[in-house]
Write a structure and sequence with these properties.
Cytochrome p450, 52% helix, single chain, 18 helices, binds protoporphyrin IX containing FE, alpha+beta, three-stranded antiparallel beta sheet
Length: 414
């Protein structure tokens, strides 16, 4: 056994208490938290997801690429997670929504993954960008109109958390009202056991409705594309693929919009560079992907064999978390010089390998239009609380502001 591995095993045996993964997301200094972990363990550190549930947090850019590009060694399927299959993780664990298996591309490997991923890639490819942009802008303007006259709003609850659901649902031909219903159903489905049964029925009713409608009258939306795709074998697979797209796009895009708006409202250097025209909106969005990517830590891969990873001795069945935010700070890919970094897109905000986010273009388009439209329409917008009082939603995965209360000058009545 190499000496580094032996040392690591010894340290693991010596440890008294592991750090909870959420200490890297709930702090004001995530990079400091990753640094502390690396000083103690190296680029692959053992962490606790919840009491008694251990996983490895991979923090190096190179090591994450090694994991996500090698599905022979590292599976996406949680059925390969020892603590899950042995029933150590409670059925009502808060890890469930992100880590328990469901029958879709996200949780599949190899051939099954490619079969289920095909319709997603083909469907997104078929969307007309100009129409998509018009639709996203109209959705944003309608939402802003709902509160513009009040001169105040919470830009997370009233806007950033609503735009992604309504727009992605819209790509499937699901209208505004049903988009709101769908959002409520998905939140209930993923949050508490009591609400999950009625929520699942509600979801099923909305999706069956739109599928029947498109069967009778096909159009050029994603529901029609999925219905026609030879890779999807039955209605169940079509529904699961729709739910995957809508849920995968929700928290990520909400966080990206909210983080960008937060920086615009609280970081004068960032806002000044953008307002002064020295930073285009796409460069600003990239800066957020580098500094605070929507998924700070991404679950998960499961080791299929005992192996060494970045000096850590990983055992078959261990869970591996992708520390995307930490990897973005890896000096091997990123410098501290903002000007050198313009145009550098080697960050891992979208991950890499076969499961890399398929929706990078629409995700960026939704975020760009949402931020741009809000900043143009809300005159003299300022944060209504001190910058330091902006709280984050508690999560080991993301660093989404819980709310962004703002004030602005309402438009003159027309
Ligand atoms: C805009 C911000 C977004 C970010 C930062 C983001 C990021 C990610 C990341 C990190 C992954 C995981 C890759 C892995 O496990 O290795 C992922 C997967 C995925 N994302 Fe996104 N995403 C975003 C928006 C969206 C949107 C808008 C959609 C849908 C329209 C979407 C659909 C998906 C799907 C379906 C997967 C699973 C792909 C697979 O397993 O093959 N994402 N995304």
């Amino acid at each position: 056994m190499p000496s580094a591995t032996r040392r690591h095993r010894q340290r693991l045996a010596d440890m008294t208490g592991l750090q909870n993964l959420a200490t890297t997301t709930t702090t004001t200094d995530p990079q400091g938290a990753y640094r502390d972990l690396q000083e103690r363990w190296g680029v692959v550190a053992p962490v606790e997801l919840e009491p008694g549930i251990h996983a490895w947090l991979v923090m190096g850019h190179h090591e994450i690429c090694q994991v996500v590009r090698n599905e022979q060694l590292f599976s996406r399927d949680p059925n390969n997670w020892r603590l899950f299959s042995e029933g150590v993780v409670a059925a009502d664990s808060g890890l469930g929504p992100m880590m328990f298996p469901r029958d879709n591309a996200y949780f599949a490997d190899g051939e099954k993954h490619r079969r289920l991923r095909g319709p997603i890639d083909d469907g997104l490819e078929s969307l007309d960008e100009h129409r998509m942009a018009r639709f996203i802008r109209a959705t944003c303007v309608d939402l802003l109109r709902e509160f513009e006259s009040q001169g105040k709003a919470d830009l997370v609850a009233d806007y950033a958390a609503v735009v992604p659901m309504l727009t992605v649902a819209g790509f499937f031909g699901i209208g505004r009202e049903q988009g709101h219903e769908l959002r409520a159903a998905l939140i209930a489905l993923f949050s508490s056991a009591e609400d999950s049964q009625p929520a699942a029925h509600q979801l099923e009713r909305i999706l069956s409705g739109v599928m029947t409608a498109r069967r009778n009258a096909p159009t050029d939306d994603l529901t029609t594309a999925f219905l026609r795709h030879a890779n999807l074998r039955n209605d169940f697979e079509i529904q699961q693929s729709i739910v995957l797209m809508i849920s995968a796009g929700y928290e990520t895009t909400t966080t990206w919009i909210a983080q960008t708006l937060r920086l615009m409202l609280t970081d004068s250097r960032f806002a000044g560079r953008m307002r002064g025209g020295r930073l285009g909106i796409d460069d600003a969005l990239d800066e957020v992907l580098w500094r605070d990517p929507p998924m700070s830590n991404m679950p998960a891969r499961y080791a299929l064999v005992d192996c060494e990873l970045g000096g850590a001795h990983v055992q078959r069945g261990d869970a591996i978390i992708l520390g995307l935010s930490s990897a973005n700070n890896d000096p091997r890919v990123h410098t501290d010089d903002a000007w050198l970094e313009v145009g550098n897109r080697s960050h891992l905000a979208w991950s890499a390998g076969p499961h890399a986010c398929p929706a990078q273009r629409p995700g960026r388009m939704i975020t760009r239009i949402a931020v741009d439209t809000a900043l143009h329409r809300l005159h003299d917008v300022t944060l209504a609380i001190p910058a330091d009082d902006v709280m984050l939603l508690p999560s080991p995965w993301t660093r989404c502001p819980a709310s962004l209360p703002v004030r602005f000058t309402p438009p003159l009545p027309s």
